[in-house]
TrEMBL record:
Organism of origin: Succiniclasticum ruminis
NCBIfam families in the cross-refs: 2A0604s01, transloc_SecF
HAMAP family named in the record: SecF_B
Residues passing through the membrane, by range: 12-33, 129-149, 156-180, 186-205, 237-255, 261-287
Protein's name according to its UniProt entry: Protein-export membrane protein SecF
Compartment(s) where it occurs, according to its Swiss-Prot or TrEMBL record: Cell membrane
Keywords carried by this UniProt record: Cell membrane, Membrane, Protein transport, Translocation, Transmembrane, Transmembrane helix, Transport
Membrane topology value: Multi-pass membrane protein
């Protein structure tokens, strides 16, 4: 790695990135996304059991009917309660016959219950809210460009935004390819990925800016960027690994309800490290209209 030039081998990393993005965008166009009930609406079952039940028990029954990803809320004044007689279940829209079968299985497994409410509901995240979220993300990018331009220069800001778009695209691509459910937790994960990605890129750009001030004529700009990346490489790798420890733990042991959230974080974290180390510096160089090896 000591003598390996990241910038001079830009064609390799750009080719990998372009191929990956083409596959991802193709999947998004032709396969689309598996939108969760937060976007598409669903069915609500409000039940009161004779005996207190746990979320895991209810989810086990629902899982037999391919409803393991349902949102289950216990009715309790104690936020730390692990069981309750009142349970609110939210699932994708299901037919009346299927709902009846689920309830029969629920009664057989968990005991008798009273049906307090059963109805179909609309999406909690409507078109207007999605539009507002898109505007918020766009404004955040504009503010990032302004801040980085003031702190560094415009080309640094544009390179950071390009790297950020790649990270978001990669995360969306994986969810489209695997047809994982996209819900409100995915939106939260995506916003977290945005912040994480920019943070890693800024660290490298800060080192490049410092080295620009003491740049020697005998050192090419390509070598200067490579040295800047390598000088922050240990910090970037350690930060990524320690972050991944927490994300993997959540992914493995956090439960089914946040499984997709943690997977989005996992993909975004890895992609953020990839773009920060292997792409961002080269993108900045190209925006400066310089050739590798100059």
């Amino acid at each position: 790695m000591k003598n390996f030039s990241i910038v001079r081998n830009w064609k390799i990393f750009f080719a990998i990135t372009i191929i990956g993005l083409m596959i991802g965008y193709g999947s998004m166009i032709f396969r689309g996304f598996n939108l969760g009930i937060d976007f598409t609406g669903g069915s609500i079952m409000d039940l009161k059991f004779e005996k207190a039940v746990q979320v895991a028990q209810v989810r086990e029954v629902l899982g037999k009917h391919n409803l393991g990803g349902a949102i289950i809320q216990l009715e309790s004044n104690d936020s730390a309660a692990t069981s309750s007689q009142g349970v609110l279940i939210r699932t994708p829209v299901i037919a009346d016959n299927d709902r009846t079968t689920v309830m029969q299985d629920m009664e057989k497994s968990l005991g008798k219950f009273e049906i307090r409410r059963v109805e179909n509901v609309g999406a909690t995240i409507g078109g207007e809210l999605i539009q507002q979220a898109a505007i918020a993300i766009f404004l955040s990018w504009v503010l990032m460009v302004l801040y980085i331009t003031i702190r560094f220069q415009l080309n640094f800001a544009l390179a950071a935004i390009i790297a950020l778009i790649i990270d978001v695209s990669v995360t969306l691509s994986w969810f489209s390819l695997l047809q994982l459910e996209i819900d409100s937790t995915f939106v939260a994960a995506l916003l977290t990925v945005v912040g994480y990605s920019v943070n890693g890129t800024i660290v490298i750009f800060d080192r490049i800016r410092e080295n620009l001030k003491v740049h020697r004529r005998t050192e090419t700009v390509t070598d200067m960027i490579d040295n800047s990346i390598k000088s922050t490489l240990t910090r970037t790798i350690y930060t990524t690994i320690t972050t991944l420890f927490a994300i993997v733990a959540i992914f493995l042991f956090g439960g089914e309800t946040i499984h997709n959230f943690s997977f989005a974080m996992l993909v975004g974290c890895c992609s953020g490290a990839y773009t920060s180390i292997l792409l961002a510096g080269t993108i900045w160089l190209f925006l400066q209209h310089k050739k590798a090896g100059e």
